[in-house]
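Record 1 of the preview.
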Amino acid sequence: MLLFVLHELWSIIDDAGSVVSSVVSSHPTLLLFHMLAGNLDRAPSPFLRMKPNGERVRMELDFDKYKAQQCCDNPACQYNGKMGEDNIRTHSRQHQQVYCNACNNIWVITKGTFFYNLKAPVALVLEVLRLLSEGMGLRAVCRTKGVTPDAVGAWLIKAAEHMHEVTVYLERAMHLTQCQIDEFWSYIQKKSSAQRRRKSTNRFG
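->
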């Protein structure tokens, strides 16, 4: 594991000798290593904003900030992989889509993040996972929250792949303590691994 981490860190160090934080955030193992090294405050935060919701405050995606970080991923486009070229336009705020005005390629701004293709509200997803991590049974959680075991299994895997984004939400929106967050991730890592093995067995069994 140490050799793997060292190899991956070497591969994401830029010419100035700094760790490329956007790459770290997409590697759960590297992100954990980054956190343990005391670099959590410098790790990238998802673009979220606080919004009043009755007596509570919820966090939602900041579309404009996400849009500003987009670049066209069409290999045939002259702006492929280039940011700040003024070619990105809004296609649909409701569906969180942008497009390139050079090639008309359309994509969702949350692609590659925890929020991508998430059908249920993020607050519900993480509340379900929190209840499970605190010892509530799967059937009881599904019955109480109106969700299915299959959906919960998919959320477990998805959360495990986006540690930093989820941790920020747990801290800022759900106000969990560090102890609660540690317990949450201990549960998620254990159950997501079991879920992956189960899916692999079902696929080849």
